[in-house]
Amino acid sequence: MPSALSLGYLDSRKRRGTNRFPRWILLSTAMLLTFATAAVMFGQETGIGVVREEASRPVAIRDITITRAAGDRVMVTDATTGAVIADYPVDEGGFVRGSLRAFERMRDVAAAPKDAPYRLIRWESGRVSLSDTATGERIYLDAFGRDNAAAFAALLGLQGGAKS
Q1: Which helix (H) or strand (E) holds 87?
Q2: I need a surface site. Which of 61, 109, 128, 151 has the fewest CB within 10 A?
Q3: Does an H or E element contain 30, and which?
C-alpha cells in the first residue's frame, strides 16, 4: 500500500514554507505605542494638548427636598427651614421634574430613603451641581445646557447658604 505522501496531496504541501505573522504589523504596533507614550509624556511636561479641570470651591450650598404634591405638582423646599422655594404646576418645571424622576430611580435602585435632601451647589467656576445626599450621586447641571442649569441655580436664590 502506498504511503500518504506519495498520493500527491501531502507530498506537494510538505515543501511549502510555514506562514509567519507579518513583521510589519508588529513593527507598526511598536511604533504606535512608542508615539503614544512620547505624546503623553510631552503633554504632561509642557501642558500642551492637555485639558485640565481646575478644582474649585463651593460658593453657595443649599439642601433642598423635591417632592410630588397632589395633582402632580412638584414642590421644592429648603431642607433646613422647611420654606417653600418653588412650586411647579403640572406644565412647568420640566427639567426639575425630569431630575426628580432620575434621582427617584437611583434611590429605588440603591434602596435609599426617599425623604433625604438633595444638595444644590454653586461652584467658584460658575458651575452648578445637584447631589443626592442619600446615594452620593452628583450631577453637574451645566452638562444639560445653560437654561437647565439656570433653573436650579435660581433655587439657590440670595440665601444660598454662602460658605466661608
Answers
A1: strand 84-88
A2: 109
A3: helix 23-46
CA–CA separation, 81 and 161 (whole Å): 12
Q: Is the dihedral of CA 126, 132, 135, 141 positive or negative?
A: negative
Q: 1-60, pLDDT tens digit by residue?
A: 555 555 555 555 555 667 788 999 999 999 999 999 999 999 989 988 877 766 678 888
CA dist 149 and 127 (Å) reads 8
Q: Would the pTM of this model clear 0.90, i.e. be above it? A: no
Query: What would the grid cell of residue 65 be?
Result: 427636598
Strand order in the sheet with 138-140: 84-88, 74-78, 58-68, 118-123, 128-132, 138-140
Q: What is the pLDDT of residues 88-102, one digit of tens each?
A: 877 777 787 777 778
Contact of 74 with 100, CB cutoff 8 Å: yes
Taking the C-alpha atoms of residue 32 and residue 28, their distance in angstroms, rounded to an integer, is 6
By the 8 A CB rule, do 151 and 96 touch? Answer: yes
